[in-house]
Amino acid sequence: MAEQDILDKCVDAPSINNIYCPLLTRGPDFEITSITQIALNIARLESSGLDVEVNYTWDMGETFDAAIGELNVNVIGSHVYKYETFDFEEDPDTRDDERGEIGNPIDSAVANVRYMRGPLTLNWRIAYLDGMRLIEDDDARERQDPYRADELFYHDVQVRDLLEQVFGGDLTVYGGASNLMDEDPPEYLTGVGEGSGIYDVFGRSLYVGASYRMGGG
């Protein structure tokens, strides 16, 4: 907390019985000789929103009377109605509406589509991020271009297969791709640090792996 903020809050408080004035040390002449700067729990966050989760499982083998597997769909979505921070919880003038600013999307969602047939599993994950403002709402947009990051979709895919009774155990092999479409962070954003850390910075990455369990089957 800045020294000037401590001074202002001490002076502006209705009485000296507050958390700011004890941080000031005065000499015999009542002049300030030192100011102690420490972390204070004085900020506040107010938020509200709606989270929705939908699950759907379709046994395709039962529907078509054939061994064609099962399809599972899971979708989790969020909508933010309010996201406000206050540097000083007792001072409404420090209100900052961060809803829709970079790092705080109004709408976001993750969907997983999984197909399973016997030991084989195919998974497709789609993550959605709403477009977000790069500047404060009250900043002059005409002097800052671009002032908004576009919405973004990430796609991840994976294939997994279970091989039973391999050398007396079960061998699971898998492979996939993260950020399949090789989406970069929006223009002028690094993808690291506050706000822009919500974006992927590695781009498309491929992987393969295996796990082995003794005595499977």
Describe this structure in words.
The protein contains two helices and twelve strands. Strands 3, 4, 5, 6, 7, 10, 11 and 12 form an eight-stranded antiparallel sheet that branches. Strands 1-2 form a two-stranded antiparallel ribbon. The protein has helices at 3-12, 60-64; strands at residues 24-26, 32-35, 44-59, 70-86, 95-97, 107-117, 120-129, 132-133, 148-149, 152-166, 169-178, 205-214. The relative contact order is 0.11. With 217 residues, the protein is mostly beta strands. It folds into two domains: 1-42, no CATH class; 44-214, no CATH class.
Brief summary of the model shown:
The chain has helices at residues 3-12, 60-64; strands at residues 24-26, 32-35, 44-59, 70-86, 95-97, 107-117, 120-129, 132-133, 148-149, 152-166, 169-178, 205-214. By secondary structure, the protein is mostly beta strands. Strand 1 (24-26) and strand 2 form a beta hairpin.
Write the topology of this structure.
Layout: H1 3-12, E1 24-26, E2 32-35, E3 44-59, H2 60-64, E4 70-86, E5 95-97, E6 107-117, E7 120-129, E8 132-133, E9 148-149, E10 152-166, E11 169-178, E12 205-214
Antiparallel strand pairs: 1-2, 3-4, 4-5, 4-6, 6-7, 7-10, 8-9, 10-11, 11-12
Q: What is the total domain count? A: 2
Instruction: Give the overall silhouette.
Output: elongated
How large is the radius of gyration?
Answer: 27 Å
Ends distance: 61 Å
Query: Helicity range of the residues?
Result: under 10%
How many strand elements?
A: 12
- Rounded average pLDDT: 83
Beta-strand portion reads: over 45%
Q: Quick one: biggest sheet? A: 8 strands, antiparallel
Structural class: mainly beta
Helix count, per DSSP?
A: 2
| Succession of helices and strands | HEEEHEEEEEEEEE
